[in-house]
Amino acid sequence: MNLGQYADILRSIQHKPYEDGLYTNKKGNPGYRAVFNVGKNWYWYSVPGTTETVDPAEVAEAISKGVVTHTGQFKLNGFERTISFAGRSYIVNAGSHRP
Question: Of 63, 54, 49, whose CA–CA distance to 94 is shortest?
């Protein structure tokens, strides 16, 4: 799966997240995280530095217009990318297992 396909999936989501909410990382910084189950796959993203809910459409726009600053693998069954756009970082993940 490439990032364009990931963005398309986010744009097509019509249901609420499987789970979502605000978090505080180990350094005390806030953020928002959402997890979606689509078919047999899981898609999730986090947006550090915010105390607001972040809609999947916003993340899809960031993927389409932003710059990838990190690429990695998630637990051997998925991927992780960090995208920088409009002063924010968006960490997007996908995998065949629930995070």
Answer: 63
59-91 tens-digit pLDDT: 999 999 999 998 887 766 678 899 999 999 999
| Reported pTM | 0.89
Whole-number Å distance between alpha carbons of 42 and 87: 26
Q: Which residues make Cβ contacts (< 8 Å) with residue 64, sequence separation at least 6?
A: 4, 7
47: which strand partners?
32
Greatest CA separation for the chain: 35
Tell me which H or E stretch contains 55.
none
Domains of the chain with CATH codes: 3-95 (3.30.200)
Sign of the C-alpha dihedral computed for residues 61, 86, 66 and 35 taken in this order: negative
Q: Is 53 left (phi over 0), alpha (psi -120 to 50) or beta?
A: beta
